[in-house]
């Protein structure tokens, strides 16, 4: 396999001497040789989509040893061309210090650029930045506004966080609304919170009626015993 890869790489229409080795490494790890060649050549020709994809290959450790710095470099090239996914990834790289020096303010800048293009994950990230003061002055109200935008795009983590926001404010009714939305998107913790709040509401209703849950169960069993035969 490797011999064939080197033979094919020798025919790649690129001038750089390093192209052969780079393309072979990509070919071994990507789905097909043609795909890897196209991504690498396209990225080096300035195609933003290919630059983003090449950054993802580096980030996913599909080009040999971990090369997270290479991922950030290719994402930056795509981000500079306005690629929203690359802008978001570069923002997270700055926030976590992966491949670049940690810089929360730079993270906010890049994720704002992506959020301006309605990028779901960037909107979620900005919600975190403002809610918890990452690189900006803490502003939970503004953070929730970004989470609401992400939630409207189906982001279950944003829906979960909004539920938590209302729960902390003592508004179980609104918390339940958002936990249900998250549960509908498959968020397991949201589903558990729904069960807890529904049970809490049921207990409150029973208490208001002056009837305990055990008494209701007892009455139900008594009625069944007298009518089900």
Short description:
With 229 residues, this protein is mostly helical. 74% of the residues lie in helices and 0% in strands.
Element layout with pairings:
Elements: H1 2-9, H2 19-29, H3 33-44, H4 48-59, H5 68-80, H6 84-96, H7 104-115, H8 120-132, H9 140-152, H10 156-168, H11 172-184, H12 188-209, H13 213-227
Helix pairs in contact: 1-2, 2-3, 3-4, 4-5, 5-6, 6-7, 7-8, 8-9, 9-10, 10-11, 11-12
Structural commentary:
With 229 residues, the protein is an all-alpha fold. The protein has a domain at 154-229. Helices cover 74% and strands 0% of the residues. The chain has 13 helices and no strands. The protein is elongated, with a radius of gyration of 26 Å.
Mean pLDDT: 81
Q: Approximately how much helix is present in the residues?
A: over 70%
Unreliable segments of 5+ consecutive residues: 1-17, 215-229
Q: SSE string, helix = H, strand = E?
A: HHHHHHHHHHHHH
Main beta sheet, described? none
**Coarse morphology:** elongated
Oligomer: single chain
| Rg estimate, integer Å | 26 Å
The share of residues in extended strands comes to: under 5%
The number of helical runs is: 13
Q: Ends: how far apart?
A: 75 Å
The beta-strand count equals 0
Helix/sheet category? mainly alpha
Spell out the key features of this protein.
disordered N terminus; 229 residues; disordered C terminus
């Amino acid at each position: 396999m490797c011999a064939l890869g080197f033979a094919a790489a020798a025919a790649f229409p690129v001038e750089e001497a390093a192209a052969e080795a780079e393309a072979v490494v990509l070919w071994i790890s990507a789905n097909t040789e043609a795909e890897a060649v196209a991504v690498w050549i396209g990225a080096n020709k300035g195609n933003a989509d290919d630059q983003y994809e090449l950054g993802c290959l580096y980030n996913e450790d599909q080009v040999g040893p971990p090369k997270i710095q290479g991922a950030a470099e290719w994402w930056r090239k795509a981000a500079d061309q306005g690629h929203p996914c690359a802008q978001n990834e570069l923002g997270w790289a700055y926030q976590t210090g992966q491949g670049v020096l940690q810089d929360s303010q730079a993270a906010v800048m890049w994720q704002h650029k992506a959020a301006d293009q309605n990028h779901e994950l960037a909107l979620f990230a900005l919600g975190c930045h403002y809610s918890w003061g990452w690189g900006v002055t803490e502003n939970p109200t503004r953070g929730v506004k970004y989470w609401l935008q992400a939630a409207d795009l189906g982001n279950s983590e944003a829906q979960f966080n909004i539920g938590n926001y209302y729960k902390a404010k003592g508004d179980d009714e609104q918390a339940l609304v958002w936990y249900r939305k998250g549960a509908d998107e498959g968020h397991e913790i949201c589903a558990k919170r729904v069960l807890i709040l529904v049970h809490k509401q049921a207990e409150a209703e029973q208490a208001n009626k002056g009837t305990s849950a055990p008494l209701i169960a007892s009455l139900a069993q008594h009625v069944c015993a007298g009518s089900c035969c």
